[in-house]
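Sample pair:
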Amino acid sequence: MTRITSTRIGIFVFTTVAAWAILSFGGSGTSGLVEGNIATRNYNARSERTLEDTAATASEQEARRQEVEDQYRLEPNAQEEAFTELQELINAVRVGAIDVAAPAPMLAVPEVVEGEQDTTTTTSDEVTSTTAVATVETTGRVILDVNGDLALTVDDRGLAGIEVRLYDQAGQELLATETQADGTWRAQAPETAYFASVNGEDPDFPIGFTLLTETSLVELDCSGSSCESPDVGYRPATRPHADVVATLGADFPGIGTEALGTLADHATIDVVRNALAGESVLDVISAAAQARLVEEFKGQITTGNLTQTRREIVASAPPVTIDGNIDIPARNAAAALVNFALRANYVFDPTATEEAREEAASAVAPVMVSIRQGERIVDQGTRLSQFHIAAIEATGAASGRPGQEAGLLAVLAVLTGALGFYLARFRPEFWTRPRMAALLGLLIVMAAVGVRLTVALQESVQDPSAWYALPGVVFGLMAAVLFDSRIAILMAVALAVLAATATRDPGVATYALLSSMIPVGFVTSLSSRGSYRRAVLASSIAVTGIAAAVAWFFHTNTGQDPWRVMFQGAGWALGVSLLTALLGLAALQFFETTFDITTSLTLLEFTDRNHKALLLLQEKAFGTFNHSLMVGTLADAAARAVGADPLLARAAAYYHDLGKTENPSYFIENQFGAANPHDDLTPRQSVEIIRKHVTDGVELARKFKIPSEVAEAIVTHHGDGIMRFFYEKARLLEGNDAVDPADFRHVGHKPRSAETAIVMLADSLEAACRAVFADEEPTPQAIEKVVARVVDEKMNDGQLSDSSLTLGQLSRARSAFYEALVGHYHQRIAYPNFPGS
């Protein structure tokens, strides 16, 4: 057994084992079972197992979780915030009851006559002791007219401690005194006319009162033995009840009109009570509400029981005693205040609640179920549960006969063996290259990975539409580009076998086959990487229809919405095909470099006239560049005629003389009439220079990373033929017996493929025609004669003996050369009076 044969066998063995390991990894045999679907057959346990019924365990855990009450934490500021809000309301009621627009309780001060102002103020005692002016005892009274009836009644009260000032007619303040406990004031005033005024800014003046008398000043004429001032009366400055209630209702909408009315009434009464140093009813109501709040906050108030607590407060309102009697409206108002300020003093604690529930759930013991060997797990037609699927997997109920893993290995061995036999029998150009066999094996292993990932996805989402995430398009595209359409069809069959063995689902196998076959037709027309992307788009669109059709037939009987399965499967197919195929374009460059493969996409890049190597050839050896283009045209025509790869033949022709860029002037096509440097060299020196263009070309091919199939033409375009011109020149100079023909042969070897043989012929033909038709007319007969002579010479010299060209192909190539050259040297019209005509 040869070393190459052993390598190929090792490759296919490795491919088989790798694919088997990938497909066996994690396989449960339950990939076709989906919770909620209908069991398609009876499942009996193949082994005895005790396993947890996770659904029952989860149900019991959830029940224990629901039994745990919500957990709360104390809100320490709740009571303080409630008292603050309550006090704000009481203050608002007090302020709202007073009419701020009522006139100020200040009697106007008389105007001071200019030039007579004296800032000295004296008391009545000082007036008596320091002046000899006669004085009169003057008296008066400042009262609170509670009823506002301008009459002193039993309800009215005098104001104590209020400052009273006396002014003379010129507005000069004479003296000041203050009222006694009953509101009266007394002063020894001059025996003259003067004015009396009450100081409304006195701090002892009660809040919420306004002037009742009509005059701002009390004018007195005290010329007798005594003088009595009229009473100065003040009434409560309160707002109308309805206005107070309306304002408070707008500011505190949650209290209620009845309670606000009670509070407004007592706020109005409190104006008089406060002025008379009586007890404030609002303070009594507020104190009762605060006391109830303290009691309520001793308990646990939450958002859940807040409403019920408020109902209980209304039902048992806090007692309010006014003037020794229980006041029902005041009680109700106090209850309304409590409910207004009351809030939850315990707030929901989600973290503590979840911890308590998790603790309760974790205390639940797993629900274990024992299944005996042979016991029926689920009957055909029964809807599958999560426990059914787990039991089927644990007991091996879904598996086939024992030893199925060995059976999987056997199926994969047959698959790789069949592929190897096909390559050896029908595609020797791939079979003889171990790298190509290794690449095919790698694609199969990658396909196994794609199938396994698809199975994992489907088991994860438990949805039959996920089967159509299988990336069949990318494997069809890569096989067609890296190999050819026939190998791509074999790849489609291999992918279908892998899908069938991994899923046991005929729908998945069908989709795998069709999705990987559909790109082959688009790849055969590739002309650029842009056309590859168009092929990806066309294949992805086509595969969506395939996915919908396959899903319709195979996967719409699973108990799920058939339209959803179809459209979602088509969506998976489109998205995955686009993504993986575009990623495959990047992977192609890696495969081309790693396995030294020359694809049509690579050849398109290397036949681009803007390639760096061709630009170098054009810049340094322009004649050789034109020569190479013509050789490429001839090689393309001949390759098409014999069924060879025309793109490869053209690319090889473009680069076959790349080495001439090192010494371009030593080749006649680049001399352009200049002196020939070979005239100054010996034949052997010239041979070394000419021979070197092959080795230089090989080095440049490595530098520019030219594929080996293209660079092969550099070594083979002269074969090992003799450089006839220099050989004959050496024989003439040195003698026939002194010259060894081996010293004048090229360093390459004979062509071994149809394309390199065609390049050799095209190269010789172009050079011969250029030489012959420099002096002769290029008639069709002359062209045919040159073609026949060059082809016969190469055949007679044995240069085509290693190539795959048959005599029939050689005959077709000869005709193609002839037609191309006739077209190139076509007859031209002689223009009158045109130079050279």
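The chain has 29 helices and 18 strands.
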